[in-house]
Design a protein that fits this description.
Blueprint: E1 4-11, H1 16-28, E2 31-37, H2 38-41, E3 47-54, H3 60-70, E4 74-78, H4 80-86, H5 99-102
Antiparallel strand pairs: 1-3, 2-3, 2-4
Helix pairs in contact: 1-4
Length: 106
């Protein structure tokens, strides 16, 4: 309680694995943020996504400011925006984790 969970996920279009990770975090935590370049979130490109889960609200402002100082192409999306982005993605569980099928075409 009171902590945060942060993960770095590498994926490539259509980024289905990362969307499933986002859907899973939304199932577990009250608040979720995703940090990535906009074209990654749109499925046009892939690479590193940072996902954050917390039971406390995530203030996107300071994250976006720090991220913008390092990477002008990246954005921070939180909560409802993450839910829209991950809509339709499966929630991963111990007994259902088809990661190899979700990863982009190799």
């Amino acid at each position: 309680p009171g902590g945060i969970y942060v993960m770095n996920v590498i994926d490539r279009p259509p980024n289905a694995f990362t969307e499933a990770e986002g859907a899973t975090l939304l199932e577990v935590f009250d608040h979720v943020a995703v940090l990535a370049p906009l074209d990654f979130l749109e499925g046009a490109a892939g690479g590193n996504f940072v996902l954050v889960g917390s039971d406390s609200p995530i203030d996107a402002g300071p994250l976006a400011e720090a991220l913008g100082a390092r990477d002008a192409d990246s954005v921070v999306v939180v909560d409802d925006q993450v839910a829209l982005w991950a809509e339709g993605a499966p929630v991963l569980r111990d007994d259902f984790a088809p990661v190899d099928q979700l990863l982009g075409d190799r």
